[in-house]
Amino acid sequence: xxxxxxxxxxxxxxxxxxxxxxxxxxxxxxxxxxxxxxxxxxxxxxxxxxxxxxxxxxxxxxxxxxxxxxxxxxxxxxxxxxxxxxxxxxxxxxxxxxxxxxxxxxxxxxxxxxxxxxxxxxxxxxxxxxxxxxxxxxxxxxxxxxxxxxxxxxxxxxxxxxxxxxxxxxxxxxxxxxxxxxxxxxxxxxxxxxxxxxxxxxxxxxxxxxxxxxxxxxxxxxxxxxxxxxxxxxxxxxxxxxxxxxxxxxxxxxxxxxxxxxxxxxxxxxxxxxxxxxxxxxxxxxxxxxxxxxxxxxxxxxxxxxxxx
Length: 309
Description:
By secondary structure, the chain is α/β, with parallel strands linked by helices. It has two domains: 2-172, Rossmann fold (3-Layer(aba) Sandwich), CATH 3.40.50; 179-298, N-(1-d-carboxylethyl)-l-norvaline Dehydrogenase, domain 2. The chain is 54% helix and 13% strand. The strands form two sheets. Strands 3-2-1-4-5-6 form a six-stranded parallel beta sheet, with helices on both faces. Strand 2, helix 3 and strand 3 form a beta-alpha-beta unit. Helix 2 packs parallel to helix 7 and helix 10 crosses helix 14 (265-282). The chain is globular, with a radius of gyration of 20 Å.
């Protein structure tokens, strides 16, 4: 961080300015970094400019001269494309710079991407995130990171600006991805269970807001119940985290479990509910839409949708 000590802001590129990526860019701006961002939408790029950052028309444009590039895309395929594809960030990144990958992916994909980056003289930090859009904007994420020690050293200030907790999990890519998948197994199951419970409460004729109040003060509560069930109560299924995210992530869990000859029946059951929601046309809606699937299957009445999707 010597550049910042001399009064020259360190350049950081953020690629992917959705609800998480934009919040992370805001946190970096507050910390005094020179932030350049890229997103496929004009509106996201304009939003960053309005917040005090700069934007570019391609990953290579914003990554040129950046000491650290933070990638906040969905999966391994998108990460590979924005790093190594046409106009990919790798073409503009200085030797010895750090690529922080925040996408959720399989450990094998993280290892392969890290190896390709190393061949091009760039450090790869396998650093998936958790905490949601609100914590991203507050710089209070949890980061589950693994990679070479020098990558941590070079990106220490960036990680501190983004996260309340940075877990340094190991010296090779893939470990962070593995830990994130354990988190996603629990998150996906907890959302499905919360939706199952609140829809059963409706079927039983209970007052749903009272049920929510009781459960959030009781042993049956979970972070996901407390966070997602208000979406159901308000009939607001605008996507903060979509159904398709858990179709992907719980699918990865099943692939990992199969390769280890490990049974994961609860995660498999939850995956079927997300697949049912996606098949019913809700794939891009909020993941709390699993409750709507339970309602359709059982005839339970949930609060009507309050917004057009």
